Amino acid sequence: MRVLLVDDEVELVSAMAERLGFRGVDADWADNGESALEMADKTEYAVAVLDMKMPRLSGLDLMDRLADKHPDMKFIFLSGHGSESDFKAGCAAGCNYLIKPIQLEELVALINRVTK
After folding, report:
1. Which of 18, 11, 55 is nearest to 36 (CA)?
2. Tell me, what CATH number does 94's domain have?
């Protein structure tokens, strides 16, 4: 199982990928939506972990574009902005999300849950 992490906070996303690797999860990362789209065209990812607020292409917009090309891909959102209730209201039913700062064990558990 490969995971694609997308967040405009480079230090955060690169550290997350490294730490997931220590836990046996193969993770690639991108710091913007356009790069993530290119990566997903070249590599099959089971899960995309997307930051909600990114410049140019939001997490929700990126999910729409990835889902069009990769219908089996699962999505988890990370949000560090706004309230949890606002995020839930703006997110489609069945959406999986974590509020920053995240606990890596929670992310691993959620990745395992969405891929079962």
Report:
1. 55
2. 3.40.50.2300
**Residues with Cβ within 8 Å of residue 13, at least 6 apart in sequence:** 5, 6, 7, 29, 30, 31, 51
> Which residue is listed with tokens 């069009």?
68
Q: Indicate the number of domains in the chain.
A: 1
**pLDDT tens string 39-81:** 999 999 999 999 988 999 988 899 999 999 999 999 999 888 6
d(CA 38, CA 112): 25
Confidence (pTM): 0.91
Give the domain range for residue 44.
Answer: 2-115
Is residue 91 predicted with pLDDT exceeding 90?
A: no
Q: Is 77 within 8 Å of 91 (Cβ atoms)? A: yes
